[in-house]
Specification:
Radius of gyration: 18 Å
Distance between the termini: 40 Å
Bound molecules: zinc ion
Oligomer: single chain
Length: about 180
């Protein structure tokens, strides 16, 4: 299964590795290998990182804290203090090493540095009062994304992920209705 990175922020993308949170949660990070693949697929993170079971546990705890805080932002309520502490602790970790070259940026570091990077990115967006955080409009998606569009008019986390599915379902419903009528 492919991971998707459409939330506009790596912390929000991590939170979205659980889908359908309110109905039947689908967790796509079940093993350390899943997490290694997710990190490699995320272009803001190193290409290679080694993950063991405790690191997966720490990541899941950070992920749930980020989701909780993003939801607090969407619902315009105070941050959950326990989640704030988890994110702050992760952000206090070492930074990734970033090197510029003619082929672009090369990033390296261990999983602690990766989580620190994700936590810092999460803090930046959660603390930005002008950042427009939204939950995807497709029923059951529950992904929270950063809407950077002009006038903040986006409805879906991603066109491919959800927008086209909703439009196709609406088209089928219209066809059914006209066939019945
Ligand atoms: Zn969606």
């Amino acid at each position: 299964m492919d991971f998707s990175f459409v939330s506009g922020n790596p912390a929000l993308d991590l939170a979205a590795t659980v889908g359908s949170r309110r109905d039947k949660p689908v967790d796509t990070l079940l093993t350390p290998a899943d997490l290694e693949r997710w990190v490699a697929d995320c272009h803001e993170l190193p290409d290679h990182v080694t993950v063991d079971a405790p690191a997966l546990g720490t990541t899941v705890s950070l992920r749930e804290a980020i989701y909780q805080l993003a939801l607090d932002r969407v619902l315009d309520r105070p941050f959950d203090p326990a989640s704030v502490e988890i994110v702050n602790n992760a952000a206090a970790g070492p930074a990734l090493t970033i090197r510029l070259s003619d082929t672009g940026v090369h990033m390296s570091g261990d999983m602690t540095a990766v989580l620190s990077h994700i936590a810092r990115a999460g803090i930046a967006v959660l603390a930005d009062s002008r950042a427009c955080l939204k939950e995807c409009g497709r029923t059951g998606c529950t992904r929270i994304y950063l809407d950077r569009s002009r006038g903040a008019r986006r409805t879906w986390c991603g066109m491919e992920e959800c927008g086209n599915r909703v439009k196709a379902a609406a088209y089928r419903a219209r066809k059914r209705a006209s066939a019945d009528g």
